[in-house]
Amino acid sequence: MLPRLLITMAAASALTLPPDCGIATWRAGPSLVRVELDRGGKLNALTRSMWEALDAVLEDTNDALLITSGDAKAFSAGADVNAVASEPVDERRDFLRLEYETLEKLQERDAPTVAVADGLAFGAGAGVFMACDERIVTERSRLAMPECRIGIVPDAGALRFLTKHCEPAVARYLALTGVPLNAHDLYRTGLATRYVPDKEDLGLDQLYAELSSAPAGELATPLDRRGVDAPRRLESGLFNEATLQAVRDAFEKGTSVDAVRADLETAREAAKKLQGSCGWATREAADGVLDVLDAAADGLQRGCPTALEITLDAVDRLAARRGDADPAAARYGRRVEL
To answer: Each residue of 225-249: pLDDT tens digit?
Structure first.
């Protein structure tokens, strides 16, 4: 295990972590600690040392956290699967336990947590992002849960966070298909809380400067000032009325992966029939619906059958724990408002 984090508050110096652990941290403001994922390559794939360092930060400071990335392309592309796969079974279990316990601490913190995914947030990286109170995206953001495609189940608490932040059909859709969402999609589902435009006078550097200078308890002020609605030009085919309803029809009710496949095929056939409509607007809508459903079908086809079944069961168990008879109810998850 890593040595415990040293915090020299009186001297107001940077927080000290072991060298080459993949995370840098420093005091960014009166009540704010900056935590930067920076492995130096591999899209910040999360290693054991990175999880241990993050756990040390959570144990040793009660200040608000701002979690960012030093990688030019990614917040984090997920766990370092190759490294984990090379370990003995007992060590793999320890690694997963470390992931879950660290994210539990991150989610349960009393002090505010802010994550900025300016790039890819996949798998366990998406788990870190979704565990935070404020989840900021930019035009470059992409989030996906592609684990089923490589024969594993979404981990690091990601399924729990999916069902917390978005409605059941969308949670199932994301967990089973691995289809990525962009900034607009993430904002609409509730997986992201704010969008920050990529402009010099409104961008992330300005946000970071204002967060750093904000008094204790006032982080919401710069977040409110710099956050805007995600622009319509980023809108994908997923979040229009016809397509979202088709996703709900395909993913909301099936009690097995085969049942989901059957519902998905029914929705695809319905869209194909509308493609023959004499109305241009109807044909255009049907084309958009079919594009999304075809991508979903491809994602299911690529998924490992066992991983898909376990993932679906896990999502539904999490739904049941929330004790809601109506899966679209607000306290279950945020239903997309069009």
So the answer is: 998 888 878 877 777 788 889 999 9
Amino acid letter, 318: L
- What does the pLDDT look like over 14-41, one tens digit per residue? 457 888 899 999 999 988 999 999 998 8
Q: Which amino acid is at 244?
A: L
DSSP state string for 287-309 = HHHHHHHHHHHHHHHHS-HHHHH
Please state whether beta strands 142-144 and 120-122 pair in parallel, antiparallel, or not at all (unpaired).
Answer: parallel
Written as six digits, the tokens of 139 are 């035009």
96-148: pLDDT as tens digits? 899 989 999 999 999 999 999 999 999 999 999 999 999 999 999 999 999 99
Q: In what order do the strands lie in the sheet with 74-76?
A: 74-76, 120-122, 142-144, 181-182
Q: Name which of 57, 214, 235, 37 is nearest 117 in CA terms.
A: 37
Helix (H) or strand (E) holding 181: strand 181-182
Q: Is residue 200's pLDDT more than 90?
A: no
Identity at 55, one-letter amino acid code: D
CA distances from 290 to 104, 143, 274 (A): 38, 21, 10
Tell how strand 181-182 and strand 142-144 pair up. Answer: antiparallel
Give the H/E segment covering residue 338: none
Tell me the CA distances in angstroms from 3 to 56, 92, 98, 128, one per residue in order. Answer: 9, 21, 16, 22
- Whole-model pTM? 0.87
Name the pairing type of β-strands 32-37 and 23-29. antiparallel
DSSP letter, residue 5? P
300 contacts 142 by C-beta, under 8 angstroms: no
Smallest CA-to-CA distance from 44 within 76, 12, 17, 7 is with 76
- H or E stretch covering 233: none
Q: Token pair of 65, please?
A: 């956290």
